């Protein structure tokens, strides 16, 4: 992973090249104030004041230059100068006029991250940004590391990121932060976590299903459970996906990646909580022992579930994990899952469909999301659709027929496994960026990670 440690440094007046960030609305006035050499450079670079225009501006000496960026991003956007983070020569930079860097430091760092596991990469030039926010450097670097870690996990091929590898990632975090790790694997799941076992039992032995649990922090502190869907590859099971639908299913463990990344930054920040991380990790494979449409599955909760679609497996494994999380009387449960295509149809890739059973928690979560510009969109836990989960032979089905309100009915299914008095947020996140943007390459992506951390940081300040 990219080492961000030295790419963001306190500004103590050391030599650095200036970056001029100019809004399109003020470009003409700014340009009119410049001398003839700079105006000539603007003309040569065809700078017209449109967002994204840029140019190197000459100084007095041959090696004296600064950078201009025309940008319409807000001052609190993490991505304000991200387009320069991977395009400038190696060196040290500051915003012109000692303008505050603020949130833009995160995008600067993430623009320099590369996923290089599967190909050779030339050493990356180090582009250092100076900031007057000396106290904020550590937290910005933490968030950049967590985001890059999440991206790397999702970008890794399923052949190298199965249930055992997710366990290894959790074990590494536990070792790093003196946490405890407990893993229930294979046939041992049958009695305690029967739906995790049912979904994962068709996989090869070395990719056996498991529930991974990490606990950290003082037992006297408020207990917070973070749950992440860890379907390391989703064939769809016997309700097999078409090849186009399977193409990106290495990312179906994106919920687990979010949970691991959030746990890592919580522990690094030393938040005063008792952290309970739970990752049900499986491969939804096809074999003679695969679970079937029409099977009635027992659950840890004690209710029975008629399986109407083997491709609606994520909610099954999450249900057993959520039940386990609730048994320790947590103050809060947050789960992340790449759960439904319906959420993507409704909201696209950038907005995690967010379901919350507590209005006070919802207000805090969305205020946190707005503060760090990590957008979420609330969808309803609409009681009127709860009847869609009725079964003729069991207590409930996992996936209603008809396809109406698919993200909502999936969330309602999960709600059955959360105690009504426990504040709970469910983020149906895509975990993938289909097209690159500055600081955000195509591939695995964090959606809702910073919002969730900001919520916890505000509720439980270190």
From TrEMBL:
Example GO BP: proteolysis
InterPro entries reported in the protein's UniProt record: Leucine_aapep/pepB, Macro_dom-like, Peptidase_M17_C, Peptidase_M17_N_1
The Cytosol aminopeptidase domain, residue ranges: 309-316
GO CC terms in record: cytoplasm
GO MF: manganese ion binding; metalloaminopeptidase activity
SUPFAM superfamilies: Zn-dependent exopeptidases
Superkingdom as given in the UniProt entry: Bacteria
Protein name (record): Leucyl aminopeptidase
Membrane spanning stretches: none
Family: Belongs to the peptidase M17 family.
Record-linked Pfam families: Peptidase_M17, Peptidase_M17_N_1
Taxonomic placement: Bacteria, Pseudomonadati, Pseudomonadota, Alphaproteobacteria, Sphingomonadales
Organism expressing this protein natively: Sphingomonas palmae
Keyword Ribosomal protein attached: no
CDD domains found in the cross-reference section: Peptidase_M17 (cd00433)
Keywords: Aminopeptidase, Hydrolase, Manganese, Protease
